[in-house]
Amino acid sequence: MNDLPKRRSRSARRREKGARVPTLADRLEYAALGSVAGLLGWLGIDRASALMGRTWRLAAPFNKRHARADAHLAAAMPELSPAERRAILGDMWENLGRTAAETLLLPRLLAEPDRFEIVAPDVDAEATQAGAVFASLHMGNWELGAVGLRLAGFKVAAVYQQLSNPLAEAFLRARREPVYDAGLFPREAASALKLRSLARTGAAVGVLADLRDATGIVVPFFGRPAYANTLPALLARRLSLPMICGRVVRTGGARFRMEAVPIEVPRTGDVEADVAAATATLNARFEAWIRETPSQWMWAHRKWRDAL
Prior knowledge:
Layout: H1 10-16, H2 24-43, H3 45-59, H4 64-76, H5 82-104, H6 106-110, E1 116-119, H7 125-128, E2 132-136, H8 145-151, E3 156-160, H9 166-176, E4 183-186, H10 189-200, E5 204-208, E6 217-221, E7 224-228, H11 231-239, E8 243-252, E9 255-263, H12 271-292
Parallel strand pairs: 1-9, 2-5, 2-8, 3-4, 3-5
Antiparallel strand pairs: 6-7, 8-9
């Protein structure tokens, strides 16, 4: 019997390195994505955004996530009538469709800064030049939050959730990377260390912090216990950096307003309590903003501890 190890196949070696081999379904999905991107590029930003928005508005209510979003909206804002909820969710799906189209056209959007307005009267520009932690939420076109930071003169780093399809992941990452000139990192444990290092050099660290994070803490959110991401507050507290809460509001078509407000981070002798307090304050700001423009937030998220 031969005890020598067998030569591993190329596919096996790639899997061991963490690179998933694209399946036939991946390749078909990637081909469809490329075709859609080509069509949207031919249409241009405004027509592409409108077309995808209209398509999602019509098709998305047949998705099972629609019922979940309606249940979350009804629980969070019980004062709304069924007709008001339907209108909000229709606008929400249109916003998501527009965001999908605009993400594929990010390089073009970057070339048109007149589409963006920045409103941050309470943010101390001098204090943030040494670095800052920017926490945002899935509102408006959240992909453009980093554009506002770039326009304000920051180098921007961020974490994001990778797609399972490696071909689609590479395709979309190539469009996002020009926005994040200080680096774009997958959501994993090692990324927190990289972000901490970059923040110390003066970069703006961006975190989308409104999603369910079962490893975080539980805070009140629309009157119900919800899971909250503590990373922004933890980075700001440990690095003695300001924490800024930001949002992107769609003001009409493919035009946007970026808003930012400071969030107080307590600095007592109890780091854990400080992080919990700042995280609760951050989520309270998220809630206030969502109440202002509920049609621009993603209600299908399982944010709450008892979510469907």
